[in-house]
Amino acid sequence: MSVFQNKAVRLMATCEAGSLNDLAERRRKLLLSALELYRAIGGSFEQLEAVIMRDEAEIPRRVDVVLGDLMSELAAIGYVYDLDIMQAAHNTLDSRRQEAADLAG
């Protein structure tokens, strides 16, 4: 795993103890974050509805393949918005760590 991934998992294990391995919770949070990003870059509910309503009869692809596609799209969005996506991710983790420390102390 990468330095960032290890850092994220450690923080989540501290802050979300029981839910780290809870796939239902991971799906929920992924969907909420993806929808928020989709709207932040100008996506509309109409476009979203069209995608959701498509008939998807094919078998889902492997997680590693889909994750690779997702990371590529995030890289492209970071490029368009002139953002370092890994720096944004580290900043978010640092902010969450500080919030957790403030709540604990």
What features would you describe in this structure?
There is one protein chain. With 105 residues, this protein is mainly alpha-helical. α1 (3-15) packs parallel to α5 (85-104). The two termini are 31 Å apart. Helix content is 73%, strand content 0%. It has two domains: 21-58; 61-105, no CATH class. The model has no long low-confidence stretch (mean pLDDT 87). The chain has five helices and no strands.
Describe the secondary-structure layout.
Layout: H1 3-15, H2 23-40, H3 45-52, H4 63-80, H5 85-104
Give a brief description.
By secondary structure, the protein is an all-alpha fold.
What structural keywords apply?
single chain; 105 residues; mainly alpha; 5 helices; 0% strand
